[in-house]
Design a protein that fits this description.
It is a single chain. The protein has helices at residues 8-11, 19-32, 37-59, 68-83, 89-111, 116-136, 138-141, 166-187, 190-200, 202-207, 212-238, 248-261, 268-286, 290-305, 309-322, 324-327. 73% of the residues lie in helices and 0% in strands. It is mostly helical. It has 16 helices and no strands.
Length: 328
């Protein structure tokens, strides 16, 4: 008897042969471009942030403009913990992620009852409220000056952070690998399939007896925890945290990165975040506003031509070259 065919939804996000190429390139940066390790570390942090947002938008269908709140809370939590004497990096990151998750658990049951434009406007308002609160609470956040002088103990008691950035880069890459593997297990599980069903038609999922709101809240909490970890990594690797982590620009940036890479593809942030940040970095060297033009032009091309973002374009080109597109 032939085995039953595997569900395409459950197998869509399983391991594929292209993944080692990305991870190999990420490791190759240490050897090939050691002078850009600081930029590379920031890219890895933003890839993780985009991954958290993809879980929320791409799989649960929740469009939020306040997701940067959890990124900022994680960033400030890691900074405050370090300044208070909690200088162990890994547990500091976990604590920051837990704080962001607790905040999401408190907000989620109220915010996620809304859908569409009301949800967008409310989450935008929540983000602005937290930004203004962080700006005014100078005794806690440092206000416009931010928190500086953040120092951490050697990683695992052995590896100093150093001035060349090797430890910071590998540290961020390790967290990204672990959380990507965890997120892939989540979206490939029955819970992940239920989230996609809610994204497509939440009314039908309710009629089928699925607890829509609890599912969304759980996804919201997991996404917030990952975003908080990304924010904590940004603080730990920069030894500084400022108001920008909670700014509206950060929310727009992560949305653009996800759209560029491909929404709901899990690996989209691995393409969109590096493209966005590298174009922004190198175009800014030519002129302060050139990067806006280039990102805008790239976004127009991707939206008009590439269904599924840059990752979708790459997949279609690969299918055409290998002949798989004809069979499909």
């Amino acid at each position: 008897m032939s085995p039953l065919p595997r569900s395409s939804i459950l197998s869509r996000h399983r391991f594929n042969l292209a993944e080692p190429l990305w991870w190999g390139l990420a490791l190759g940066v240490i050897i090939l471009f050691p002078e850009y390790l600081a930029v590379g570390t920031s890219v890895l942090v933003m890839v993780l942030f985009v991954l958290s947002y993809d879980l929320l938008l791409g799989f649960a269908g929740v469009l939020s403009l306040g997701h940067t709140v959890f990124f900022g809370i994680g960033a400030y939590a890691a900074g405050l913990l370090a300044l208070a004497g909690w200088t162990e990096a890994v547990t500091g990151v976990l604590a920051a992620g837990a704080i962001s998750a607790v905040l999401a658990a408190a907000l989620g049951p109220f915010l996620l009852r809304l859908r569409g434009l009301p949800l967008i406007m409310i989450t935008l308002s929540v983000g602005l409220v937290f930004f203004e609160a962080a700006s005014k609470a100078t005794w806690l956040t440092g206000g416009d000056d931010g928190l500086s002088g953040i120092e951490l103990a050697p990683l695992f008691g052995r590896f100093g952070w150093g001035m060349y950035g090797h430890t910071k880069y590998l540290y961020a890459l390790g967290w990204l690998f672990f959380l990507f593997y965890l997120t892939r297990r989540i979206v490939a599980s029955p819970f992940g399939v239920a989230l996609q069903g809610i994204r497509e038609n939440d009314a039908r999922m309710r009629l089928m007896g699925n607890p829509v709101l609890p599912h969304l809240v759980v996804a919201y909490v997991i996404s917030a925890a990952i975003a908080g970890i990304a924010g904590a990594l940004l603080t730990q690797t920069n030894s500084f945290v400022g108001l920008g982590v909670m700014g509206l620009d950060n929310s727009i940036d992560v949305l653009i990165m996800l759209v560029l890479g491909g929404v709901g593809r899990l690996f989209g942030g691995f393409i969109g975040a590096p493209v966005y940040m590298l174009v922004k970095h190198f175009a800014s060297l030519w002129g302060p506003y050139y990067w806006m033009f280039m990102i805008g032009a790239l976004l127009i091309v991707v939206v008009r031509v590439g269904r599924g973002g840059l990752l979708g374009i790459i997949e279609r080109v690969t299918d055409r070259l290998t002949g798989r597109g004809v069979n499909r």
